[in-house]
Amino acid sequence: xxxxxxxxxxxxxxxxxxxxxxxxxxxxxxxxxxxxxxxxxxxxxxxxxxxxxxxxxxxxxxxxxxxxxxxxxxxxxxxxxxxxxxxxxxxxxxxxxxxxxxxxxxxxxxxxxxxxxxxxxxxxxxxxxxxxxxxxxxxxxxxxxxxxxxxxxxxxxxxxxxxxxxxxxxxxxxxxxxxxxxxxxxxxxxxxxxxxxxxxxxxxxxxxxxxxxxxxxxxxxxxxxxxxxxxxxxxxxxxxxxxxxxxxxxxxxxxxxxxxxxxxxxxxxxxxxxxxxxxxxxxxxxxxxxxxxxxxxxxxxxxxxxxxxxxxxxxxxxxxxxxxxxxxxxxxxxxxxxxxxxxxxxxxxxxxxxxxxxxxxxxxxxxxxxxxxxxxxxxxxxxxxxxxxxxxxxxxxxxxxxxxxxxxxxxxxxxxxxxxxxxxxxxxxxxxxxxxxxxxxxxxxxxxxxxxxxxxxxxxxxxxxxxxxxxxxxxxxx
Length: 478
Hints:
By secondary structure, this protein is mainly α. Helix content is 79%, strand content 0%.
């Protein structure tokens, strides 16, 4: 008898071999330092400008081009991980990324540092896009939200802490090269740890390994896994891998709407790397180290956002699981926190802008970052959980296109932020950002109402039929 699929629970097998927090350590730690790498040059810009002899615009490219690399990398890493597995893709990208950080530390001219920053960003994107898919591989819907909440602090903390660390390194007189040596050393350690301890988690690839093992043990060639039936050449597989994210993205209105919202929010985070020096360094006359400290409320707000999620929304989701059983919880339930976070995100920019006068205490604009960080985490958690729940089997491709779009905004915003804040002033520039944010606030509300209809028409969403109300309520009325 031909066994058309080797059925065995890879998630449970992975969990038996490795604890959940073991995986979270990998995901959040590496994502934290990869995103730390994106913002780290902001604290050593004067030293790099002096050594290389370039201007402020080129200095901004050291951040913008690294984030621009996030636009290219996900096009490969997400889809390739759905063909060859998560671990090989992560491992290759880790090794190359480490090499590029060493190259940055040893750079002798402007062209080298600029090119290596872009290439480093391409390979640094792998954990950002694959971590969500890895979490989807390992955690079931009842615990996935908690895992994603803890992981979110990683990529969120990096941009917030980068200017602080590099700024104090510059104030202490440490060479700018040591910022890149620090990044290279940590990346190297992570590469070694993951090589020896991180197993494969992608179910189709695990099924292939299982089928091969059964064929070797039994001598029966009738055992096979679905992925083995794909007889495409390597070239065709790569072509399919590159096209898949765009096919998914452009055929799904929900992904386009979510991508627009998350991209604007992400771009605003990187816009702060240009806005904060204008308000705090020029306006309040702080040095690079103290100006870097102004980003700490951004990280603390993110921590509060995670705590709020774990204490409010995670227990609420657990109750929803029981209410909807045996049906899955509709992905739209994930969006509820974004209904609150969207307006508070816009408010935080009005707060920052109109308290940025030099005669007003620096505490006022600084603490606006606390609300901003809180709002960003709730927005990201709501929308990323929604993407994973709604597009479970193509989560890597869906997250890849979202990462590309977000990164394009993250790379572009710093390029015009300085000019905008200098021309309009911090008050009206921040007001403009806040007003644009207000126009995006309705997106979660629209998805809450029309999301089920859109998912029923989608060929990528695995959840088709949604009960009109929780089964618990239905049982009580019978």
